[in-house]
Amino acid sequence: MRIAVTGSIATDHLMTFPGRFADQLVGDQLHTVSLSFLVDNLDVRRGGVGANICFGMGQLGTAPILVGAVGPDFEEYRAWLDRHGVDTASVRVSEVLHTARFVCTTDADHNQIGSFYTGAMSEARQIELKSVADRVGGLDLVLIGADDPEAMLRHTEECRTRSIPFAADFSQQIARMDGDEIRLLLDGATYLFSNEYEKGLIESKTGWTDAEILARVGHRVTTLGSRGVRIERVGDDPIEVGCAEETVKADPTGVGDAFRAGFLSGLAWGVDLERAAQVGCMVATLVIETVGTQEYTLRRNNFMDRFTKAYGHEAANEVRKHLE
User: Fold this and answer.
1) Is-contact 46 294, C-beta < 8 A?
2) How does strand 191-195 pair with strand 219-223?
3) How many CB atoms lie within 10 A of CB 309?
4) CA separation (Å) from 238 to 187, 229, 273, 315?
5) List of long-range contacts for 234-239, beta carbons under 8 Å, 24+ apart
6) What is the C-alpha end-to-end distance of the chain, expressed in Å?
7) Judging by DSSP bridges, how do beta strands 92-93 and 69-70 pair with one another?
8) Helices 273-288 and 300-311 sit at what angle, rounded to 10 degrees?
9) Number of C-beta neighbours around residue 247 at 10 A
10) So what's the pLDDT on residue 116?
11) Which of 34, 192, 216, 315 is 20–30 Å from 78 (CA)?
């Protein structure tokens, strides 16, 4: 099963200021702030929802096709993804813009000041999925993740026009989208991904009830935080899968992307929805135990031991043959 993942590709530049931002702010001078913070450290981490999802799928051996736009500074990041089983040949390289970048400083009270530079991400709207499909011999599913909004709309419409099944996954972009855009992006989706808060926001912005949205998509996949995930389909009982037990909660960033990576890999293997959700929850657990969205290592034996403990021998036997 050939799965393409469209979405942002970015780097995160994370800095730590040992003091408090509040101590540097003068109440009657906030209209003319000019500050510089001497930071203690800088962490540069790979990110972007499209790249995060593909990294996880690559570790599971399902050869995802990454679709997005980057700058000429992408080569080191590309080499990393290539080494981890991601097909990056359909990534567009801008001639004039840098790869998207999030720059954030955190103070001693965990307050943050950040900026997001979209950069080359704005050129994702110029990517045609037909060229991707022609290169790989057809596409069985396209996940349309958070990206340049115009790109998300174009990819969705092209999937409909070319009868390519697609999954709608707005995540961070839902805040800036209006009801008309959300209705266009989800109508006819084979899968609709969201967390619980986003689920309510989708219903509020579209004016559609839960039942009305469910009637317009094949499956509604809602992540529930520490409670796992719920999968709904008209006429079927909901499927609920809990999380595997984590050894430590190091960093929740990227957990949703990791779930999608595992779930989509399960679909690529041809296992049922419950098994796919279990794989997704297991990968999400690995991510919450590490700092960074692509810093975890999926060791097959360890993965299967923990998967068996969480979901039982029958489930493990179905999954093990695909990892081998």
Assistant:
1) yes
2) parallel
3) 11
4) 20, 10, 11, 18
5) 239/273, 239/274, 239/277
6) 17
7) parallel
8) 120
9) 10
10) 87
11) 192
> Is 257 one of the catalytic residues?
yes
- Pull the structure tokens for residue 19: 């003091």
pLDDT single digits (tens) 14-29? 899 999 988 888 877 7
Take residue 205 and report the two structure tokens written for it.
């912005």
Kindly state the DSSP code that residue 124 receives in the 8-state scheme.
Answer: G
The letter for the amino acid at 308 is T
Q: What secondary structure does DSSP assign to 175-200, as a single string?
A: GG--HHHHHHHHTT-SEEEEEHHHHH
d(CA 88, CA 65): 6
Structure tokens at 297: 């290592």
User: Please, what's the largest Cα pairwise distance for the chain?
Assistant: 66
Residue keyed to tokens 């599971």: 60
DSSP 99: P
Q: Which two tokens stand for residue 145?
A: 């993740």
% of the chain beyond a pLDDT of 70? 100
**Can you tell me the distance from the alpha carbon of 231 to that of 223, in angstroms, rounded to the nearest whole number?**
9
Tell which residue, 157, 148, 211, has the closest CA to residue 186.
157
Q: What is the layout of strands, in order, in the sheet containing 10-16?
A: 41-47, 10-16, 100-106, 112-117
Residue 258, token pair as written in the block:
């990791």
Predicted TM-score of the model (pTM): 0.93
